Each structure stands twice: as C-alpha cells, then as structure tokens.
Amino acid sequence: MGLLDGKVAIVTGAGGGLGEAYAKLFAQEGASVVVNDLGGARDGTGADRSAAQKVVDEIVAAGGRAVANGDDVSTVQGGENILASALDNFGKVDVLVCNAGILRDRSFANTSEADWDAVIKVHLKGTYCTALPVWKHMKDHGGGAMVLTSSTSGLYGNFGQTNYGAAKAGIYGMVRVMAIEGRKYNIRVMGLAPGAYTRMTADLPGRKDREPDPLSLPENIAPGVLYMVSDLAADHSGKILGVSSRGVREIKMVETEGFQPGRPYTAEEVAAHADQVFFREPVDVRRLGLTPA
C-alpha cells in the first residue's frame, strides 16, 4: 500500500530538480502523475518540452503511471491545459504541487522591469493560474491537497532577490487565505519553503564549487512533501513547512507582546518602549540552516 494509492497528482516544474523528485516519489507511492515542465532555462527563457517526457518515461519504466505536460504555468490557458491533462488521462485531481520557478537575481537597484515582471509572473501569477482551475475542480469533487512553494527568501529575506522574495512572500499570503476559504470544501493548502541543492541554487554564495550535502539533494527533500500531500497531514492546513537538510519544521509568523498604552500615544513613547515592540534577537536565516531555494 502506497501513501497515494489511487490518487492523481499534478506537479509543476517537474522536469528536473525538486519537481522531478516529487513526481517520482508520488508515483512510487501509487499516484498517477501529471509531470508539467516548460523546459526553459533557469532565467525563464526558451522551452524544451522533452524534459517532462523524460521524467514520465522513467516513471513508466519503473511501473508507474504518468503523463507529460509542457504548458506555461504563468498563463490562464496554461493552467487550464494542465488540469485538462489530468482529467483527460486520469479523470480527476487529488493533489497539486506548485513548484515551477525561475531566477533573475539582481540587487534591488539593478533590477530591471523585465526581471521583476518575469519572476513575479512565473512564481506568483503562475501559482494563481495553476491553482485556480484545480481549486474549482476540487471544490466540486470532494476536496484535495495543495502545496504552494514559498521560500525563506520571501519569509526572511535574502540579498539580491527582491523580485523572487516578493513573489514567494505573496505565495505565503495565498496559502493563508486559501486555507481559510478551503475549509468547507475539504481543500487543504500548505506552504513549502525548501532548502535543496538544484540547478536553481547550485551557484549561490556558499554553494558554488562545493560538493552538495547529500541530505540537501532533491530526493531527500521529497519525503517531506509527500507527507504534506498525503493523508498523514490531514489535520494540517494553512501552515508552512521548511524542508531542508536539517529536516522538517514549521515556520510561523509571530509577534511581540508590544507596547499597549490603551490611549493616544506619541512616537517618542514608542521609542521608549522599543524593547516591548521589537524582538530582542533578529531571526538569522543562516543560523536556522534554511538556505533559500
């Protein structure tokens, strides 16, 4: 018995890296999988739809069920076509993992409008375009599970990634709202902040020219995501998990006790109570071991 026996899963950006690892593990656990990938370069240019087919061929050769889809997640029609691939081939959708992404890293002053638009379009709009048609299907067919990929770059910040960080923070907002709206339809929505060694992260500072930690390879991140989409996580929605070489942990937005005067106050009074307003120690992403991905 597999954790996903009889279920149908869509994984975007599954032609390599994390998405490929998710798709293969889901298939091993009994799911029929739609492997979506446009096959573009890391910066979003170009297309090679053979990437998705290669993953499908490997899944089928191992005895699984899968179909390739090469549509662009960042368009409404692309999202509709991805859903249609699942329905035409497998008749339903139980699981969606929005994983597709690109990078165009620049310091904020050097970010062009094209850099901004491309990254926001693929990550944030792409999550919307893919999730919306699947959401409507799940809403009318008993529910399902969605995992939307955020990042520590959006949750904590990372130098040179204002466009990427903004998109990933927006996805966190989507998770929170969609989880609330999905309750009455039995739709679970969770967020994922992965820390993995892939083509997206291989040349980031601290990783370039270094052998990767085996625990940071995609196949060692995938079990955490399998947990999230399976019935093992049936009691959890609206939460975001960090999954990295350090394991699996929940990431939460928290607040201080704060300055609570209960009356009109001045800016000077806020300054005088700064110890109550601010956390004493800022969160250090490097200390947490959540290298953005």
Cα shape: globular
What is the percentage of strand-forming residues?
5-15%
State the helix count.
10
- In the predicted model, the low-confidence regions spanning at least 5 consecutive residues are none
Query: What is the strand arrangement across the widest sheet?
Result: 3-2-1-4-5-6-7-8
CATH topology: Rossmann fold
The CATH superfamily is NAD(P)-binding Rossmann-like Domain
Q: Termini separation (Å)?
A: 32 Å
Mean pLDDT value: 92
Structural class: alpha/beta
Total discrete domains: 1
Radius of gyration: 20 Å
Number of strands: 8
Helix content: 40-55%
Q: Do you know the CATH architecture?
A: 3-Layer(aba) Sandwich
SSE string, helices as H and strands as E? EHEHEHEHEHHEHEEHHH
| Main sheet summary | 8 strands, mixed
CATH class: Alpha Beta
How does this model look, in words?
With 293 residues, the protein is α/β, with parallel strands linked by helices. It has a single domain, classed as NAD(P)-binding Rossmann-like Domain (Rossmann fold, 3-Layer(aba) Sandwich). It has 10 helices and 8 strands. It has an 8-stranded mixed β-sheet with strand order 3-2-1-4-5-6-7-8, sandwiched between helices.
